[in-house]
Amino acid sequence: MTGWDLQPPDIGRTLQDTVKIAKELQAQAKAFGEHLKGAATAAGTLAMGGEKPEAGLVGLALSEFAPHAEKDLRFVAARSAKSVQGASEATTAYMNGNLQMAADAQREARKAPDPDFGKPTGEKKK
Fold first, then answer.
1. Are residues 7 and 58 in contact, defined by beta-carbon separation less than 8 angstroms?
2. Whole-angstrom distance, CA of residue 96 vs CA of residue 13
């Protein structure tokens, strides 16, 4: 058909393995957030008399770090999902003999994903 040399069974196995790893990454990202909160709480505070604050300097630093790390993790998850979907669509189009659709799916998969896709407008992160 073209210069492409696709082996659909191998692609299917690779996509399944990638989805499995992406799900594990999602679980690790959730655990990361929980561990970050635990670290912020356990790091202690500087009590200079009066009421003891909920978090100290380390907790404050972690609270500043967390939104940036969350944004990056959401992007990685969205990138993974878009890549798997694009590879699947391109392979299906190729096997159906539609090389233009395969090329279009491949090109679309390379574009940057929207990590907030599917969230209501008020819930989208900046």
1. no
2. 19
CB 6 within 8 A of CB 91: yes
Residue 77 CA to residue 59 CA, distance in Å, equals 26
Structure confidence by residue, pLDDT tens digits, 36-77: 888 887 777 666 666 666 667 888 888 889 888 888 888 888
Instruction: State the amino acid at position 63 in one-letter form.
Output: S
How far apart, in whole angstroms, are the C-alpha atoms of residue 109 and residue 88? 10
DSSP string, 62-122: HHHHHHHHHHHHHHHHHHHHHHHHHHHHHHHHHHTT-HHHHHHHHHHHHSPP-TTTTS-GG
Domain ranges of the chain: 8-37+59-110
The pair of structure tokens assigned to 99 is 């090389």
Specify the amino acid at residue 88.
S
Length of the chain: 126
| Beta-carbon contacts of residue 43 (< 8 Å; ≥ 6 apart) | 55, 56, 57, 58, 59, 62
